[in-house]
Design brief:
alpha+beta; single chain; three-stranded antiparallel β-sheet; Factor Xa Inhibitor; 65 residues; elongated; 3 strands
Length: 65
């Protein structure tokens, strides 16, 4: 049986935690930062878990996660 290729873009964006959950970093933190409040920029630095509704699509992109 052939191996399934992982989506390389998704492979750089998602990581697996020690408990097997999938985490990612937030968007909107790369440019146009002068118009954003300090609190908002600070919260954008944190990583968050992938929502359970999106997990199926992430698993399809990364079959060996």
């Amino acid at each position: 049986m052939l191996k399934i290729r992982s989506n390389r873009g998704a492979g750089k964006r998602f990581k697996v935690t020690g408990r097997g959950r999938v985490k990612h970093y937030k968007a909107f933190a790369s440019h146009l930062l002068t118009g954003k409040k300090t609190k908002r920029k600070r919260n954008l630095r944190k990583s968050v878990l992938v929502d359970r509704r999106d997990l199926k699509n992430v698993k399809r992109l990364l079959p060996y996660l």
